[in-house]
Amino acid sequence: MIVKSFEGGYDKNFSYLIWCNKTNIASLIDPSVDIAAIIDAIKKYKLEFKSIFITHSHHDHLSYLKDFIDIYPKINIYINYKTEFQHSLVSYVKNNQKITIGNEQITCISTPGHFYDSMCFWNEKHNILFTGDTVFVGRTGRVVSHKSNIEDLYHSVYDIILKLPLETIIYPGHNYGNKDKISIKENKQISNFFNAQNFKDFEKTMKNFEKNRKKS
Q1: What are the helix (H) ranges across the chain?
Q2: How far apart are the first and last CA of the chain?
Q3: Taking the mean position of all CA atoms in its chain, how far away is CA 94?
Q4: In the 8-state DSSP scheme, what is residue 198?
Q5: Whether the predicted model's global pTM rises above the 0.90 cut
Q6: Are 216 and 208 in contact (CB under 8 A)?
Q7: Closest CA to 117 of 170, 162, 78, 74
Q8: Could you report the per-residue pLDDT of 72-121, keeping only the tens digit for each?
Q9: Residue 63, C-beta contacts closer than 8 angstroms, at least 6 positions apart
Q10: Residues 10/1, Cβ–Cβ less than 8 Å
C-alpha cells in the first residue's frame, strides 16, 4: 500500500492519500486539508478514488469533505457507527470491520477517548495505523472536549493500540511531534504517555501535560 501525506488544515492537520499499487484504487484518511494538492496527486498517479475514511467527527477532520463530494458525488464515506454525523453517502462501520481498497485491506478499530466516535484504521500487512487524534508522535490526544473520556482513552491506547505489533507505524492526525510518523516501539521509548503502570499513572501524566501546556 502506498501512503502519501498532506499537511495543512486547521492546525497542522494531516490527510493521507492511500492506494493499492496493483489496482490503483485509492482512499483518503480524513478530508482535513485543502483538496488541490490531493486532486493533483490523484490525477498524477492515475488513481481510482473510491472512498474516504474519517477518524472522528471533530470539525477540523471534516473541513474539506464537501469539496470532495462535489467532485466525487458517489464517494463512499466510512465513519464509526457510534457517530452522530450523518450524510447520505456514509457507511457506518463497526469495530474490527474490514474494508478493501483494491488488494489491500483496512481494519476499522474503535478507539474512543479523545472523542466518542474515534476510530483508527489499520493495514496489518504493511504495519500501518492511522490514529487520528488518539495517538500522536510523543503523546496521546487530549480529552478536553465534550464527549471525550480519559478512561476510554486509556483503554484504547493500552488495551488496543499498544497491543499491536511494535513495528507498526503510526500516522497521526496532526503534525505535533518532532517527526511526521513513528513506530509504536519508538513512541514507547520516547514518551511516558505510553509507559503508565496503571490508569492513575496515566491520568497523572495527562494532568501534568495540561498543566504545563497552559503555562506555555
Answers
A1: 36-44, 65-71, 150-155, 184-190, 199-215
A2: 39
A3: 15
A4: S
A5: yes
A6: no
A7: 78
A8: 999 999 999 999 999 999 999 999 999 999 999 999 999 999 999 999 99
A9: 9, 10, 13, 31, 32
A10: no
The per-residue pLDDT for range 5-19, each reduced to its tens digit, is 999 999 999 999 999
Query: 103-129 burial string, b = 16+ CB within 10 Å, else e?
Result: ebebbbbbbbbbbbbbbbbbbeeeebb
**Amino acid letter at 152?**
D
**What's at 191, amino acid-wise?**
S
Q: What is the rounded distance in angstroms from the CA atom of residue 66 to the CA atom of residue 74?
A: 12
Which 8-state DSSP code applies to residue 54? -
Structural domains in the chain, CATH included, are: 2-215 (3.60.15.10)
Amino acid letter, 66? K
Residue with cell 457517530: 83
Assigned C-alpha cell, 201: 499513572
